[in-house]
Design the sequence.
């Protein structure tokens, strides 16, 4: 981490933030053995310029993980570059184009990753819904407000595909349709004869309030499920910690991969804790400097030789 010669205020804020990070008990990853992955909605990141403290705090949080799927990244990438400069020369980003209409909200999806731990394998693309021939054109019958974005990665001897989505807020019916389309699309993608990879992680801000209702049932209708490390999570990833808007799901091809620990990194704590990071700031302003979402994270095993050999024997 390259915080450099920061002001005394930022230094004090970083020390306080590290105390909150430590409380989340994110374990260190081990090269070629484990990988820390996270999904984080950083509120309108790039729309309003972040202050210097906020950029350092966001970098500190991202740096706890090896691969982060970022949503609500906007068309202006200036603040993203500021964060990457603090993270240092080993960090890279793969990101989608923005969508200029109101539904797209000028948003991108990005995968920020530490190249010492995880390698980008070359494939990155938006998800394209099934099309049907109408006259002389091939047109989608339905679509997402913001298409999910996918990229291929490898860590250790584990190759995998990560898909990150920001599902519409809209109506509950609209959300359910998008989530069901996502489940069907992911299942079709991993079932292709020449699929890039069949080990798929799906994450992002799904705007799902809980893990029991129809919205969650829609996205898990084709086999996606919570990793064991997140199944017992008792609170959400919004600042009030009562909603499960953010999700991190997988197909249990190698369930042992995902049996490790996971959770939510609570950099907020409570409204009373804002002053320690941003003296005198309101909660609303805090959400536009940091976010109104907390990172949802999981540690996974990437050394899968034993699992592969066992499957061959079976």
Sequence:
């Amino acid at each position: 981490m390259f915080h450099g010669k920061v002001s005394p205020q930022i230094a004090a804020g970083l020390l306080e933030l590290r105390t909150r990070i430590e409380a989340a008990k994110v374990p260190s990853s081990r090269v070629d053995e484990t990988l820390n992955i996270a999904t984080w909605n950083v509120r309108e990141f790039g729309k309003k310029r972040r202050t210097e403290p906020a950029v350092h705090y966001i970098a500190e949080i991202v740096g706890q993980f090896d691969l982060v799927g970022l949503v609500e990244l906007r068309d202006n990438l200036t603040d993203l570059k500021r964060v990457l400069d603090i993270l240092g020369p080993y960090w890279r980003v793969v990101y989608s184009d923005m969508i200029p209409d109101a539904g797209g909200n000028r948003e991108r999806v990005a995968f920020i990753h530490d190249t010492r731990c995880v390698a980008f394998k070359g494939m990155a693309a938006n998800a394209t819904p099934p099309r049907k021939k109408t006259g002389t054109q091939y047109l989608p019958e339905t679509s997402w407000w913001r298409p999910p974005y996918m990229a291929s990665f490898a860590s250790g001897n584990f190759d995998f595909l990560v898909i990150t989505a920001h599902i519409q807020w809209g109506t509950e019916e609209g959300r359910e349709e998008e989530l069901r389309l996502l489940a069907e699309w992911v299942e079709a993608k991993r079932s292709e004869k020449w699929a890039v990879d069949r080990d798929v992680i799906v994450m992002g801000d799904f705007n799902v309030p809980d893990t029991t209702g129809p919205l969650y049932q829609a996205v898990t209708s084709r086999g996606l499920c919570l990793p064991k490390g997140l199944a017992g999570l008792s609170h959400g990833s919004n600042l009030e910690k009562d909603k499960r808007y953010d999700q991190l799901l997988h197909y249990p091809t190698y369930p042992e991969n995902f049996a490790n620990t996971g959770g939510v990194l609570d950099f907020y704590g409570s409204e009373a804790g804002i002053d320690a990071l941003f003296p005198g700031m309101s909660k609303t302003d805090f959400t536009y400097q940091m976010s109104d979402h907390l990172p949802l994270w999981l540690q996974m095993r990437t050394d899968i030789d034993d699992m592969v050999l066992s499957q061959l024997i079976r």
About this structure: Helices lie at 8-23, 52-62, 78-87, 172-190, 214-219, 228-231, 283-289, 305-313.
